[in-house]
Amino acid sequence: MSGCYVRDDSPTLQARPPTYTEDCTGTIEYCLRGFYKHHGEDFADADACLWSRGKDPKTLDAYRILNNDDYRAGIRALQQGNQIYNRYLLITRLTDTHVADDKDKEGNDIINQLWWSNERRVPLARESLDLAKRKFATAFGPEFSGEINQAIDDARAKLNAAWTQVKETNVNHISDLYGWFRGKTEEKYYKSW
User: Fold this and answer.
1) What digits encode the pLDDT tens for the residues 88-137?
2) Predicted TM-score of the model (pTM)
3) Is 111 in the same domain as 40?
4) Phi-psi sector, 3: left (phi>0), alpha (psi -120 to 50), beta
5) Pairing between strand 5-6 and 19-20?
6) Could you give the number of structural domains in the chain?
7) Phi-psi region of 98 (alpha: psi -120 to 50; beta: other; left: phi over 0)
8) What is the distance between the alpha carbons of residues 7 and 30, in angstroms, rounded to a whole number?
9) First to last CA, the chain
10) DSSP letters along 90-105, please?
11) Block means of pLDDT (10 residues each) for the chain, length 193 residues?
């Protein structure tokens, strides 16, 4: 054992990376992230691990992640939607620059070419948000879907802001939802490694 990590050096498990110890992570993260599985503890699930330590899982004030793959896919969809919309705004800003063709025809041609494909970016960003909603619907219990959908809808409404309202800042209305999720889900108990 070295610090927070434990590695099982038996030949059959040598390829497995080291895992965090309970003393290092704290009981809640240790159980929720399933680290107990790598330390010889056999529980049916994270709740059983928590109960074994005298902690009632119902007292955790966080959304439990039921499907981590869908949760990560939802976060990725939010980030992609945000980046697609940022591109839309950037290209829109470029079209607001006016230079005579005799001074920069090549630049004007590039901007015009970008502009012709730009209108499809807003629906693409919205499709990403719809995908995020679908992924989060299976990542969490149904009791949280209303609040999650409302947070995404609030961020979606900000996608309609005029460029002049947001041009001095990076438009992160959607990707900033990651912080919202981190504060609402079991991830708020996780340390940042």
Assistant:
1) 888 988 988 889 999 999 999 999 999 998 989 989 988 999 999 999 99
2) 0.72
3) no
4) left
5) antiparallel
6) 2
7) beta
8) 15
9) 18
10) HHHHHHT----HHHHH
11) 50 50 75 84 89 89 89 92 87 89 95 91 91 93 89 78 49 68 84 63
Q: Do 86 and 165 belong together in one domain?
A: yes
As a whole number of angstroms, the distance between CA 72 and CA 66 comes to: 12
Q: Whats the size of the chain, residue-wise?
A: 193
Compute the distance between CA of residue 192 and CA of residue 92 in angstroms, rounded to an integer: 37
Same domain, 19 and 97: no
Question: What distances in angstroms separate CA 37 from CA 16, 20, 34, 45, 82, one per listed residue?
Answer: 12, 11, 6, 10, 36
Token pair of 64 as six digits: 């439990």
11 and 100 within one domain: no
In terms of domains, do 35 and 119 share one?
Answer: no
